[in-house]
Specification:
The chain is α/β, with parallel strands linked by helices. Helix content is 30%, strand content 25%.
Length: 232
């Protein structure tokens, strides 16, 4: 089973947790895209749900699939969010934001009674940090914000390179909310909660990609099938 098949297998298992009448949060990224497509098939077969997308990309995908969409202003409490992750670590702590949608993803997950994270086996790690940690910031005063973020990281652990994210064409990556992203290449994160707290206190930081205490279940596709891990 290749990586994409692992992603789809995890997404298919997550679909089994969706019930008629649910209010869903739809994640962003390649694995979440499989979930959106599979839910779209169920909708076309009569499943009655309404969903909040976490990005403009997911909005477009869900619209094409015929999924009824709403907003958190109209539907501020959701039953379930299903989303991917860049890393899944101990205690189902996550790194998210590789696709740039971390702010909306965290808002939607926080508005949900439950969150299921779906991924292929490569995302399951014994410690977080190999994947660069995305930190969403406002563009005003970027140099000062970056310096303050570096100081916050040094106060909690060994730092690493920190740089604004660029698109493939070399231009600055801009999120759906109009912000920039600093990617912190830390190699390992010793204390995710302490790091999250330190970064959150920096003026100019909008959000970071550490999702702690939000995921209730992980569904991970591997070469030998799917495993389910629930947060204790």
């Amino acid at each position: 089973m290749n990586t994409d098949a692992q992603k789809r297998a995890a997404a298919a298992r997550a679909v089994e947790f969706v019930r008629p009448g649910m209010r869903l949060g739809l994640g962003t990224g390649s694995t979440a895209k499989h979930f959106v497509e599979l839910i779209g098939e169920r909708v076309r077969s009569g499943l009655d749900i309404v969903a909040v997308p976490t990005s403009e990309e997911t909005f477009a995908d869900a619209s094409r699939c015929g999924i009824a969409l709403t907003t958190l202003d109209e539907t501020p409490e959701l039953d379930l969010t299903v989303d991917g992750a860049d890393e899944i670590g101990p205690g189902l702590c996550l790194i998210k934001g590789g696709g740039g949608a971390l702010l909306r993803e965290k808002i939607v997950a926080s508005a949900s009674a439950r969150m299921i994270v779906i991924a292929d086996q490569s995302k399951w790690v014994t410690e977080l940090g190999r994947f660069p940690l995305p930190i969403e910031v406002v563009s005003f005063g970027l140099a000062a914000t970056q310096r303050a973020v570096e100081k916050a990281i040094r106060a909690t652990q060994r730092p690493g390179p920190l740089a604004p994210r660029k698109r493939k064409d070399g231009q600055v990556f801009v999120t759906d909310g109009g912000h920039w992203i600093l990617d912190a290449a830390l190699a390992r994160i010793d204390d995710p909660a302490a790091l999250a707290h330190a970064i959150s206190g920096v003026p100019g930081v909008v959000e970071h990609g550490l999702f702690i205490g939000l995921a209730h279940m992980a569904i991970v596709g591997g070469p030998d099938g799917v495993k389910i891990v629930e947060r204790s």
